[in-house]
Write a structure and sequence with these properties.
Blueprint (H helix, E strand, L loop, with lengths): L2 H9 L21 H17 L5 H32 L11 H32 L2 E3 L7 H15 L6 E3 L13 E11 L2 E10 L7 E4 L6 E5 H7 L1 H4 L7 E11 L13 H13 L3 E7 L4 H11 L7 E4 L38 H7 L2 E5 L5 H12 L3 E8 L7 H11 L3 E6 L7 H13 L3 E3 L6 E2 L3 E8 L2 E9 L11 E8 L2 H15 L11 E3 L3 H17 L5 E6 L5 H12 L3 E6 L16 E6 L4 E2 L2 E5 L6 E5 L5 H5 L1 E7 L3 H16 L4 E3 L7 E2 L11 H15 L1
Parallel strand pairs: 1-6, 8-9, 11-12, 12-13, 14-25, 17-22, 19-20, 20-21
Antiparallel strand pairs: 2-4, 3-4, 3-7, 5-6, 7-8, 10-17, 11-15, 15-16, 16-17, 18-25, 19-23, 21-26, 23-24, 24-25, 26-27
Helix pairs in contact: 2-3, 2-4, 3-4, 11-12, 15-16, 18-19
């Protein structure tokens, strides 16, 4: 980089942002990863407060915000705290001071939490206007109180195990992310009236919301917390308390699994040990009801040895508001998103054999617009097709009661060879994946666990057929998991192809899983950790050469996260060479766009809407011979260097036009798109008038629907 560019970047004042003067706490070339992530969650909160979203959906966005924030503390904040504990002068990989970052995170979280609480209070008012009331125990009518007491006796009471708290008794080992009531009882002793304490775990497996009897046309609902509060006196009747009161607490624990280098123990044993570690990990955060009496709070902090106020955060009456994602809709269609049933792909519509269709035509599926049932159906067909000899698949996350797993087991029962590579260390799904691997092995399926030291994050399967001497192979390369439930809300792409060169290279990747010593040398697929960084770097530099020669350079990247410093630097270099770069980044973006002399040719937008934008799409203009890719990899160091990721070129002109149209829709969005810049303030990209208002997700669905109606 020239000294002129260095000077411009260094002197650029990144002020007036939501984190204050970013310049003082940054390397001047990158946005702080943690701050950028919090800006992403702010975009989720923006969806919760916008009045043009249906009311119940706004409530569910509040749940998504809470769920995101829990995971942020369990993973990212925990990671920073561990780094600071080792070295108080430690820096992040992008050069940010860890202590300063932790302070900035704390300040911003408190701001967001305040905005969140205001949004929740407004939501309650809006619900009441829609004749839906969230009632607490002080608001129950006599009929509702009777219903609640019966519900408590029949559905809740047997699940509650009160634990008395006193000075000598050790505090129970609190579980991560579970709500507990700290209960105070005013009881008479020889010394007079005193407060004694107990702890009750709110059963996480019970429904969080209970619909109450309602009068007239209105509907009423209650948190299970308040139903328990209503009958607390029944639990502690033995003590004959004059008064019983309860306040909620929740702890967040470090979620990292420390994988040591003990090769004498199996991976599954180490993962299982890591899950136990997670339950007992260090406290990252304690949230307590801000109405909790000071004596009670002091007791809790003492028992948990949490004297550091940075880890102790006052909250509202209700914790775990991630459960708002499951808030009942009461059958009120006008309060939820308009139903958009997933569509059949035109070439697969009502076809008896999906395999035969893929053998004729390469297909690009786009979920959740297209039904994920196509993937389940093609695996089911492979399970019973007499000509199919083998199915190979790699799994990162799967649904509970997965139809994919059922199809694989059925294939094994029908005599097919089934080989599954399953990633045990998929964060927060480790236990599920251990259970799935055991289930598959019991069915006689060969199960492997990937590559030592690398997470297998690719999304692949390969079906092999033989008719006489003829061999046919169908490959699938996707951007999202083989997970039926997430495919209903995650926007992802998947290529189904019988093209021999691609299928051969997918087979090479599966061979690599079993023979890790064998280095991959592929012409078409781009695979991390071997050549993703190099190949995409080369493509960016090719655009630079086109721009410098006067032909013009153009890049569009749709990613979940852009954090890797080296890839950010090559994009800066492309901008300085005159390449026009558009980035569509849903989550973290550490690149700073629009800085003269560094990134003035780069624009960044983010779309947060009804569906979670998860598909990674890469476009390089290549002087009129464009290159298109879909990928499982973000541009993060872990995806480029420490995971097995697969990107596949899209070469069919019809499928390329499908991607072009999708990217154009994303670039035209002015309803759910935000401008990402140095301020991280998430300014909405507004249309000139309501007549030109465009939602990319709505436009995409309507386009696929129109295509289907034409067939």
């Amino acid at each position: 980089m020239s000294s002129k560019v260095k000077a411009v970047a260094g002197n650029h004042e990144l002020t007036n942002g939501i984190f204050g003067d970013v310049k003082k706490s940054s390397s001047h070339r990158y946005l702080n990863r943690e701050y950028s992530w919090l800006a992403f969650n702010h975009r989720v909160l923006q969806e919760a407060i916008r009045e043009d979203n249906p009311l119940i959906e706004r409530i569910r966005f509040l749940g998504i915000f809470s769920n995101n924030l829990d995971e942020f503390f369990r993973v990212r904040v925990a990671n920073l705290q561990r780094a600071f504990a080792v070295d108080q002068n430690s820096k992040t990989t992008l050069g940010f001071d860890v202590e300063e970052t932790l302070k900035g995170v704390q300040d911003r979280v408190l701001q967001l939490q305040e905005d969140y609480n205001k949004a929740f209070e407004q939501m309650e008012l809006d619900l009441r206007k829609s004749k839906i009331r969230i009632l607490n125990e002080r608001e129950y009518s006599p009929e509702q109180a009777e219903f609640v007491s019966t519900y408590f006796k029949n559905q809740i009471r047997t699940h509650l195990v009160p634990i008395m708290i006193d000075g000598a008794r050790p505090f129970p080992d609190l579980q991560d992310g579970v709500i507990y009531f700290v209960v105070g009882m005013e009881v008479e002793r020889s010394s007079g009236w005193v407060i004694e304490y107990a702890l009750i775990k709110i059963p996480p497996h019970l429904p969080r919301f209970v619909i109450l009897p309602s009068e007239n046309e209105g509907r009423n609902v209650s948190f299970i917390d308040d139903i328990i509060r209503n009958d607390l006196h029944r639990i502690f009747r033995l003590f004959q308390p004059k008064r019983v009161f309860a306040h909620a607490i929740k702890v967040t624990r470090d979620a990292e699994i420390d994988m040591d280098d003990d090769l004498s123990r199996s991976l599954m044993e180490k993962i299982s040990d890591g899950l136990v570690q997670r339950k007992k990990g260090d406290f990252v955060r304690l949230i307590y009801d801000r109405e909790m009496p000071e004596d009670m709070l002091r007791l809790v902090k003492s028992k948990l040895d949490l004297t550091d106020s940075k880890n102790v955060i006052s909250g509202s009456r209700y914790h775990n508001r991630k459960d708002l994602m499951k808030f009942p809709s009461f059958g009120r269609e006008e309060l939820t998103f308009r139903h958009q049933p997933p569509l059949q792909h035109p070439r697969l519509k009502d076809k008896s054999s999906l395999i035969q269709q893929v053998l004729k035509h390469e297909l690009l599926l786009h979920f959740p617009y297209h039904t994920f049932g196509h993937i389940v159906d093609i695996l089911r067909e492979a399970a019973i097709d007499p000509h199919v000899t083998q199915i190979q698949i790699n799994l990162y996350r799967v649904a509970q009661h997965s139809k994919i797993i059922n199809a694989l087991i059925n294939a094994a029962h029908n005599g097919k060879r089934v080989d599954v590579i399953i990633e045990l260390a998929a964060r927060f799904d480790e236990r599920q994946n251990i259970n799935v691997s055991n289930l598959l092995q019991e069915a006689g399926i060969t199960v492997g666990f990937g590559v030592t030291g690398l997470k297998v994050h690719s999304k692949l399967f390969l079906i092999t057929r033989k008719q006489g001497s003829k061999r046919q192979r169908i490959a699938y390369i996707g951007t999202g998991n083989f997970h039926e439930k997430s495919a209903e809300v995650f926007s992802d792409f998947g290529l189904l192809t019988a093209e021999p060169a691609i299928a051969h290279e997918v087979d090479e990747v599966f061979s690599f899983f079993n023979n890790n010593y064998k280095r991959l040398h592929l012409k078409h697929l781009i695979v991390s950790p071997y050549d993703s960084r190099k190949r995409f770097n080369q493509m960016v530099r090719q655009e630079m050469r086109h721009a410098e020669s006067g032909v013009g350079g153009r890049i569009i990247l749709k990613l979940n996260n852009l954090v890797d410093a080296a890839m950010i630097e090559v994009l800066y270099a492309a901008s300085q060479s005159g390449v026009k770069v558009d980035l569509i980044v849903r989550g973290i973006c550490s690149l700073i766009p629009g800085i003269p002399g560094m990134s003035e040719n780069i624009r960044v937008r983010s779309i947060v809407g009804r569906y979670l934008e998860h598909g990674r799409v890469l476009y390089f203009a290549n002087a009129g011979n464009p290159k298109f890719f879909i990928s499982s990899a973000d541009w993060m160091t872990r995806n480029l260097d420490r995971r097995v990721e697969v990107s596949v070129p899209i070469t069919d002109p019809v499928l390329q036009s499908q991607i072009v149209q999708f990217l154009e829709d994303q670039m035209k969005d002015n309803l759910h798109a935000r401008l990402l810049d140095a301020s991280m303030s998430n300014k909405m990209i507004k249309g000139r008038s309501s007549r030109t208002a465009t939602s990319s997700q709505e436009t995409t669905y309507q386009r696929y629907k129109n295509e289907l109606n034409l067939t």
